[in-house]
From TrEMBL, chain A:
It comes from the Bacteria. The lineage of its organism: Bacteria, Bacillati, Actinomycetota, Actinomycetes, Streptosporangiales. The chain crosses the membrane at residues 12-38, 58-82, 94-116, 136-158, 188-210, 216-233, 240-260, 266-285. This is Branched-chain amino acid ABC transporter permease. Belongs to the binding-protein-dependent transport system permease family. LivHM subfamily. One of its GO terms (biological process) is amino acid transport. Keywords: Amino-acid transport, Cell membrane, Membrane, Transmembrane, Transmembrane helix, Transport. It is a multi-pass membrane protein. GO terms for cellular component: plasma membrane. One of its GO terms (molecular function) is transmembrane transporter activity. It is found in: Cell membrane.
Automatic annotation (TrEMBL), chain B:
Residues 7-239 form the ABC transporter domain. This is ABC transporter ATP-binding protein. Keywords: Amino-acid transport, ATP-binding, Nucleotide-binding, Transport. GO terms for molecular function: ATP binding; ATP hydrolysis activity; branched-chain amino acid transmembrane transporter activity. Belongs to the ABC transporter superfamily. It comes from the Bacteria. One of its GO terms (biological process) is L-amino acid transport. Transmembrane segments: none annotated. Gene3D superfamilies: P-loop containing nucleotide triphosphate hydrolases.
Length: 293, 241
């Protein structure tokens, strides 16, 4: 039993990382209806920026704050420069732009920092808390805490600030939002900036567990897609719940289902995506597109 | 044109892509007046309102109280005090009634005033107070129209544009809405331009009216003159003469 709980805790730790990247995906999807395939690569690029700061001798937490600020500005810039021109274009056009961005960011990171793997410092102490036969690493606790804080801040922003209300208005009815005087273009850019920031958090959290290299986020992005699909692409809370569920499912499947082991774990999110799309396409927390007219 | 023309529209052309809808509309609306735009389906009534609030590309000129509004984007027009209740009401469906109303005051500063204005709106539409925390999408059609007008009033507009407020509503509800619009116009001196298919109701509250047909104003006059006009009576009011 303790072993089982142990696996769940490990799963939650991994799931929190998927949750934060899924949250970034959902933020952009809500505002622009775009599934941003480049989200993971943007997070990876942010992580390199943090690495560069730390390598330059900066304390980790200062580097983190600066990286988040740079990511926010970078996300807004990407929206203004790359996404704005294709706003309202056919979905496929937008998907191609985001795939192009994926390739570009990946190549740019390789060009600047090479494809050699780098060690990324772990901001959390190495020890663990032991209680009742369970071992919970400070690293896992730290990850859960950081994702919890990010969630809380986003909740406060969306539910309790005027700018958050404006963002929700743009997400639900952009034309009407414009009529009440909201600058919709800037709001969309703000959404991209926020998503880039939240994505950066996921990259910085995952980097110490993996190695920092340009393809680092590929696997995480697939888990994040599974999480967002499971939770519902239009529900930030769903993305987080989805991320945690996917993390736990992946860990349990790896530990208890013999033929899966650690090699086939990557298949778990794909099975989840397929299952959700077949049974409940809007996701656990998503709204089906039905409304009163 | 008189000295007190509040809104003047000069030779306004507008359309969607290749489709031209307005072919040189000229009209003026006096300060504090209710102006009705009548006309059959497809005449360009909705497009005229959309042109006024910057939602479609236009040629010509739109001036509000001397300031040029032509080719300004909708958010800039709103910041100049023009509130537009669009076709379909523009409700933010998943947001609560209160959030919808607060969004109406998005460009305003001064928290205290906004709170006071919420009370004012509940005064006009008591049913909204009962539904504050409900998602706006759960309201009935009439309640949603009240919410839309309430949202527009939260801007403290100098000019209120109403697109077919009667659409899809029971006659009783529509009459009530027009009565409230009239009250608002009288108490707050808000200039109102209302587009309506239901010409009877619109003429009851309007001071002046314009008849739009295939993108041109074909008739203008006081509400009484328009009502008395035999041709209009036959075409739009359904009278037998």
């Amino acid at each position: 039993m303790a072993g089982f709980l142990q696996q769940i805790i490990e799963g939650l730790g991994a799931g929190a990382i998927y949750a934060s990247l899924a949250l970034a995906l959902v933020l952009i999807y809500q505002f622009t209806g775009i599934v941003n395939f480049a989200q993971g690569e943007m997070a990876m690029f942010s992580t390199y920026i943090a690495w560069q700061f730390v390598a330059g001798g900066m304390p980790f937490w200062l580097a983190l704050v600066l990286t988040l600020a740079v990511s926010f500005a970078g996300g807004m810039l990407i929206e203004r420069v790359l996404i704005r021109p294709v706003e309202g274009a056919h979905e496929l056009t937008v998907v191609i732009v985001s795939v192009g961005l994926f390739i570009f960011v990946n190549a740019a990171a390789g060009w600047i920092w090479t494809f050699l793997i780098k060690d990324f410092p772990n901001p959390f102490p190495g020890g663990a808390i032991e209680a009742g036969g369970l071992t919970v690493g400070f690293s896992t606790l730290g990850i859960l805490a950081v994702v919890g804080v990010v969630m809380g801040l986003l909740y406060l922003l969306f539910q309790h600030t005027k700018i958050g209300l404006g963002m929700r208005a743009v997400a639900t009815n952009p034309e009407s939002a414009r009529l009440v005087g909201i600058r919709v273009g800037w709001t969309l850019a703000l959404g991209w900036g926020l998503a880039a920031t939240v994505g950066a958090v996921s990259g910085i959290l995952v980097a110490p567990l993996l190695f920092l290299e340009p393809n680092m986020m590929g696997g995480v992005l697939i888990y994040a897609f599974a999480a967002a699909t499971l939770g519902g692409f239009d529900s930030p809370a769903g993305a987080v719940a989805g991320g945690l569920i996917v993390g736990v499912a992946e860990t349990l499947a790896g530990a208890y289902v013999g033929f899966i082991g650690s090699d086939l774990k990557i298949g778990v999110p794909l099975v989840i995506i397929l299952g959700v799309l077949l049974v409940r396409p809007q996701g656990l927390f998503g709204r089906a597109a039905v409304e009163r007219v | 044109m008189t000295a007190d023309d509040f809104l003047t529209v000069t030779d306004l052309h507008a359309g969607y892509g290749e489709a031209r809808v307005l072919h040189g509309v000229n009209l003026s609306v006096g300060r504090g007046e209710i102006c009705a735009i009548l006309g059959p389906n497809g005449a360009g009534k909705t497009t005229l309102l959309r042109a006024l609030s910057g939602m479609v590309r236009v040629r010509g000129a739109v001036r509000l109280d001397g300031a040029d509004l032509t080719r300004r984007p909708p958010d800039a027009v709103a910041r100049r005090g023009v509130a537009h209740v669009p076709e379909g009401r523009g409700t933010f469906m998943p947001l609560t009634v209160e959030e919808n109303l607060r969004l109406g005051a998005f460009v305003r500063r001064g928290r205290g005033e906004v709170e006071a204005d919420l009370e004012r709106i509940y005064g006009y539409f008591p049913v909204l107070r009962e539904r504050l925390r409900q998602p706006a999408g759960s309201l009935s059609g009439g309640e949603q129209q009240m919410l839309a007008i309430g949202r527009a009033l939260m801007l403290r507009p100098r000019l209120l544009l109403l697109d077919e407020p009667s659409l899809g509503l029971a006659p009783m509800v529509t009459r009530e809405l027009f009565r409230i619009v009239q009250t608002i116009n009288e108490q707050e001196r808000t200039t109102v331009v209302v587009v309506e298919q239901n010409a009877h109701l619109a003429l009851d509250v309007a001071g002046r009216a314009h008849v739009l047909e295939t993108g041109r104003i074909v008739l203008s006059g006081s509400a009484e003159q328009i009502r008395a006009d035999e041709q209009v009576a036959q075409s739009y009011l359904g009278y037998r003469v």
